[in-house]
UniProtKB/TrEMBL annotation:
Residue ranges the record marks as coiled coil: none
Pathway: Carotenoid biosynthesis
Phylogenetic lineage: Bacteria, Bacillati, Actinomycetota, Actinomycetes, Kineosporiales
GO molecular function annotation: oxidoreductase activity
Gene3D superfamilies with a match to the protein in the record: FAD/NAD(P)-binding domain
Family: Belongs to the carotenoid/retinoid oxidoreductase family.
Protein's name in the database: Phytoene desaturase
Superkingdom assignment: Bacteria
Signal peptide: none
Segments crossing the lipid bilayer: none
Pfam families, alphabetized: Amino_oxidase (PF01593)
Domain Amine oxidase: 12-312
Amino acid sequence: MSRVVVVGAGFGGLSVAARLAARGHRVEVFEQGPQVGGKLGWFSRDGFSFDTGPSLLTLPAVQRDLFLKTGAPVEEVLDLVPLDPVAHYRFGDGTELDLPGGGLPAVAAALDEALGAGTGAQWTAFQRRAAQIWDVAREPFLESALDGSRTLVRLARDTSALRTVAPWASLRGLGRTYLQDPRLRTLLDRYATYSGSDPARAPAALATVPFVEQAFGAWYVRGGLHRLARAVADRAVDNGARIHTDAPVAAVLQSGTRAGGVRLADGTEVAADVVVSAVDAARLYRDLLPRPRLQPQRRLRSSSGFVLLLALDGRTPGLRHHTVLFPPDYDAEFADLAAGRPVADPTVYVSAPDDPALRPGDDCEAWFVLVNAPVHDPGRGTDWQDAGLVARYTRTVLDTMARRGLDVRHRLRWSEVRTPADLERLTGSDGGAIYGTASNGARSAFLRPANRSPVPGLFLVGGSAHPGGGLPLVGLSARIVADLVGEA
């Protein structure tokens, strides 16, 4: 068995560590921060607690596979709660929609009731196409390591599959084929933001995102999703892995032409047969493996997020687990993001689980509030370290919520702000880009950094590498890399 070093204890790093340790490899994980989890973060103050990253779990089969392959089933470790409704949507025209979690027929019925007869049929027709894309793309693009241009060539030979995936079409373009109601198109556009992308440029294959959420359900981990990261870390340790926190890695070492271990910031060198990088791919190639010929071409970074953690007095009648408040002009939001400036009239996303573990009593609430934001880029875009900007934009977000019917300014006990600059500092993500590379363009899947690096023995896992960001895809990347290590 191999000596394996994993750089970074985010969800991808922990997942691949657990899988490799369960297969008998000697695994050591080095994490720069004081705790594990990466973007599956957690913040507590005065009895209020917040997940600072993902707030729902989709495609739970990926996590079930991880836990089954490494020990006891996930249901014996975590309390997974199905969400129903998954989210409450408020559109720019004032229309409101509760999107259920009971499967595609329930979604269609809810759309007909909220948006008018026939909208359910439009969405169902779109989801049928999305299901076909899922069937064609799942194995070669999501569950396997890409084999360079040969993967695209194989797809191109299957003309039926090519027509189904429609790599020449954008997500928005595919939506317009099926969705006549503009509110349905707004709803679809939001799913591009799950990968930090622009729906007018994101590939039609991202239709699989709403399909997966609505066909297989959305789930919450009671006590907060950060418990998922801790459970995977425990599983890795139970299988023999060693996890070191407050242990930043300064460089990936090479032995001849192969990866040979890592050098820590304190100068300690740790030898290894295999190195798995779970840090942002841009940081790996720029800082940890400083050989210009190995650095991939710079790609468009995904968007980031501006976050408010709100400790509120009182309770909100009828509050759902997720609430999404759309602006009247959704296109303007993507124009602002493309220009690298804070969104003037943003979509506001609120996660407020009704979970006693997150609040000090029944007379208060803990809200995680997110708006899409450009990355931290002081030289060419937005400087999120500007205290004046942060204060102004905090007021913008709270005022926007008030205009759209969720005025909590008079209930605010305290708030904490997390900017893209904070995300970059805490997780090492390039500019705070949540998903690494944006999924924009027909060839975006082939432009994402591969799981197998140009250096033999060095592999990439996590949201900035193939197949992409979000808990399901990061979990799949860990499975792919574990298999690749076994072949190396």
